[in-house]
Amino acid sequence: MIRIAIPNKGRLYEPTISIFKDAGLPISGGAESRKLFAKTTDPDIHILFARAADIPEYVQDGAADVGITGMDLITERGANVEALLDLKFGRANLVLAVPEDSDFEKAQDLEGKKVATEFPEITRRYFEKLGVNVNVIKVSGACEMTPHVGIADAIVDISSSGTTLLINHLKAIDMAFSSTVYLIANKESLRTKEKILDIKTAFESVLNAKKKRYLMMNVPESSLQAVKEVLPGMSGPTVMKVESSKFSEESILAVHAVVDADLIFTIVNRLKKVGARDVLVVPIERIMP
Ligand SMILES: Nc1ncnc2c1ncn2[C@@H]1O[C@H](COP(=O)(O)OP(=O)(O)OP(=O)(O)O)[C@@H](O)[C@H]1O
Ligand SMILES: O=P(O)(O)OC[C@H]1O[C@H](OP(=O)(O)OP(=O)(O)O)[C@H](O)[C@@H]1O
Ligand SMILES: [Mg+2]
Question: What is the mean pLDDT of residues 229-246?
Fold first, then answer.
């Protein structure tokens, strides 16, 4: 049996549920039903709902074999776990921010000052690396308020859109840590439970698929060579004969190929120019190499 700890609420909950679905491992019964455990379509794989901040410890101690949570929380806890895969969502920066009317311009200007944060370990390490001595004050929320009430001179806090800093009259002057959500595993479980790597591969296939699109088009036989030249360096394309229509003299081929999502705009325009018709761009759910 493999137990996977996932966030029970907050902004990581929905994207985590969706990556399980895309990976072909949908979770039955979410945390909204206030259950602590849930099943997946694999009878061997069970879900444990937990606070995102507690997941690193659960995985380290073996309460869960695998976990999904933010790298900031994993690093802050100093959890001894194996980071298997960057899942690339839940992106957030831990920034060093100061009141917008202050004279502090860089971390070095904070020598001997007070810095409030929910992430004291990451903050200590950040200033240590820079050789700057600060007094780190741990708070458990509403960090943005502390410089305005004399508790701190600066903060190290999560910023993603930057709105919270702006409305609290703070400005970011450096980035202390950049975080995304990771798939992590208990080190002992990783040695003994092979299926953990299958889970990693399934998630990896979802990430690969997000970067690609499936292209389908009809091509007159005379344009095939030119179309192939527009689709270089990719496996395929697959070419199939389309049943001839009484309206068309020329033989038509259906061409299918997998292409980089970033190149879609350029490729589709070029394909049209060399004679491709009825071009369809389709998302892909998973790519298993
Ligand atoms: N804008 C953001 N604010 C806070 N955390 C964020 C943000 N964007 C991504 N995250 C990541 O989400 C994780 C925190 O999730 P957590 O569930 O503890 O907080 P939350 O989504 O703010 O929920 P709540 O505070 O309501 O419990 C961290 O790893 C953090 O890096
Ligand atoms: O740059 P932004 O997009 O504004 O996001 C950053 C803010 O979001 C988080 O707070 P959250 O909404 O989770 O409230 P909390 O402090 O109660 O957890 C975080 O602690 C920041 O305050
Ligand atoms: Mg929060």
Answer: 78
